[in-house]
């Protein structure tokens, strides 16, 4: 019988911290660009009757001899109606040599953390080193962790948050408002920002690129499904970077008529030093994140190995 390690959310949280995730996500981007991993086509489908989006993302880490998948998605009413997270996901890891499952783990914390890490890695290479002002659009789970990721890399002095609603789960925004640093509207948040982060599930643009100041960087995080659109590109951007063109052009910001010839790079080309990141203080840059499977797998492989070594989790025989 085959032994499978089961890791619940608390156990994953105990092992995985943002600082480590930033390091792993940077590595996984570079490794993918160097053909040290393989990403399989992603599934992303709308479940109309339950207002959900179901997806499967899978990949193969050649060096780790691990194949795996993350299944789940985004149910937009979970938090409001059921006090459950809108994002729901689970991962299964397999031994690449035999196909046997090795680990089943909660992936909600993995998704949150690897996405925060993606924003931090992109900003490290594309934003101005002395960035001080951040505009966050949206105030949910990603808004908060994206800010944490940036605080790891930059000396941020001012944060503007613009969101459609201040819900119960968004206490941290109320705190920011009380400190006088929220914005009345998206434009007010964006115009003075060195780094703009969009984190909403919007299907209608909220931010226009013509609002960006010289030298600004945008991390477009929210668009990860066909139809979603947070950023209206009404003024061209000097360097547009994505995580994976095959995904960005279908489910990311770049699905809305953006031609591949205008893409500057995939992020792995920049982390792998094949192409330069930011070169001047004036250029305007943008990173379109759709979330790629090697981010999940790289982080999950680390969690699995550490849990095994430290005797964390439960083993079942399949
Ligand atoms: N790129 C990736 O790898 C990745 C990873 C995780 C999540 N996501 C995507 O990021 C988005 C946000 O995820 P989350 O977990 O933070 O969701 P969430 O529900 O916790 O937060 C969404 C926030 O957006 C706000 N919002 C919605 N529409 C708005 C609008 N038109 N204007 C201003 N604010 C608006 C909501 O009030 C809420 O604060 C989703 O689209 C999700 O699918 C992407």
From TrEMBL:
PANTHER family noted in UniProt: KETIMINE REDUCTASE MU-CRYSTALLIN
SUPFAM superfamilies reported in the protein's UniProt record: NAD(P)-binding Rossmann-fold domains
The protein's name in its UniProt record: Ornithine cyclodeaminase
Species in which this protein is naturally found: Priestia endophytica DSM 13796
């Amino acid at each position: 019988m085959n032994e499978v390690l089961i890791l619940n959310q608390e156990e994953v949280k105990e092992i995985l911290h943002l600082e480590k995730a930033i390091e792993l996500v940077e590595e996984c981007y570079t490794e993918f660009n160097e053909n040290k991993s393989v990403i399989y086509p992603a599934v992303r489908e709308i479940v109309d009757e339950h207002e959900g989006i179901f997806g499967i993302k899978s990949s193969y880490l050649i060096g780790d001899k691990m194949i795996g998948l993350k299944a789940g998605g985004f149910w937009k009413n979970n938090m409001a109606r059921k006090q459950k997270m809108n994002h729901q996901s689970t991962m299964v890891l397999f031994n690449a040599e035999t196909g046997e499952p090795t680990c089943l783990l909660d992936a909600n914390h993995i998704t949150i953390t690897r996405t925060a890490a993606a924003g931090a890695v992109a900003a490290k290479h594309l934003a101005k080193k002395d960035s001080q002002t951040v505009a966050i659009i949206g105030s949910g789970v990603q808004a908060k962790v994206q800010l944490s990721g940036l605080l790891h890399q930059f000396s941020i002095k001012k944060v503007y948050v613009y969101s459609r609603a201040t819900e119960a789960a968004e206490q941290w925004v109320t705190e920011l408002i009380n400190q006088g640093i929220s914005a009345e509207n998206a434009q007010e948040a964006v115009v003075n920002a060195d780094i703009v982060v969009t984190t909403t599930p919007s299907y209608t643009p909220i931010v226009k690129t013509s609002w960006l100041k010289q030298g600004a960087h945008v991390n477009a995080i929210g668009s990860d499904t066909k139809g979603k659109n947070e950023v209206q590109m009404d003024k061209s951007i000097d360097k547009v970077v994505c995580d994976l063109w095959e995904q960005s052009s279908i489910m990311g910001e770049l699905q809305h008529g953006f031609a591949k010839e205008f893409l500057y790079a995939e992020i792995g080309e920049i982390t792998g030093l094949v192409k330069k990141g930011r070169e001047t203080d004036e250029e305007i840059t943008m990173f379109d994140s759709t979330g790629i499977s090697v981010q999940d797998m790289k982080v999950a492989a680390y969690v699995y190995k550490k849990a095994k070594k430290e005797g964390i989790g439960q083993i079942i025989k399949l």
